[in-house]
Amino acid sequence: VRCNGQHPCGNCSQAGLGCTYDAIPQKKGPKGSRAKVISELRLREGQKKAEHRRQDSYNNYASPTSSPSSPNILGLLTPDLIDGCTEYYFTHMFPTMPILHHEQLWSLTADMDMSVEAYCLISAFCAFMLIQPGIETKAPQAIRLMAASSTNTYLGKTLLDETLRRRRCYDYIENPSVNAVITSFFLFGCCFGLEKHNTAWFHLREATTLAQMLGMQDEKTYATGTMVEAATKRRLFWLLFVTE
User: Fold this and answer.
1) By the 8 A CB rule, do 234 and 180 touch?
2) Are 52 and 59 in contact (CB under 8 A)?
3) How far, in Å, CA of 73 to CA of 193, rounded?
4) Cβ–Cβ < 8 Å for 147, 208
5) pLDDT, tens only, 45-86
6) pLDDT digit string (tens) for 195-214?
7) Phi and psi (nearest 5°) for 169?
8) Cβ(158)–Cβ(150) under 8 Å?
């Protein structure tokens, strides 16, 4: 395409092309039609855009767990809601599901705005609490006020969808952690409560697979860390074992 010296040049603008100065090698002999050259340029431009989209998709998937920018975009995970779900958990669910402790929840809540992993765990945790049967009568005041304009199940489903969406932002499979195991278990509990049994089974198997990747079936795994951390991990392993 002949350039008239402007940027973008008139010919590129008329053809709907990005104006570049890349030269396309031509065969010797009589030249082809102008339409054929424009078609080749459009093909190359489309290939470049597709490659950029693939690279952006890979970068988003492989981004580290500490790279989000204010992930709490829905504004649902308010301090009052998290406190209410925490109170409900330790009052009604901790005896049969002792996989979190107060200090751990406080630390995760503080890291939510800087860590996708922490955000996903707290979001899944609150979703699981909200979906629990009978929470309307047993829930603390903060949750009852939150549900004034909607049902707890609807809020839980919204947080479940948000967790799944945000979880695509980091590679928790290639870089598993105890928090990822707990998040998958809460996703299992959410789907089970919503009677999505196939999806629930998938997330339970995901949680047990991540636990196995971390070596939680090996007693040597519990030799490192504090006594509280070791006890929490051991309880998590046996909870997964019994549930499965």
Assistant:
1) no
2) no
3) 25
4) no
5) 665 655 554 455 444 434 444 444 455 555 778 888 898 899
6) 999 999 999 999 999 999 99
7) -85, -5
8) no
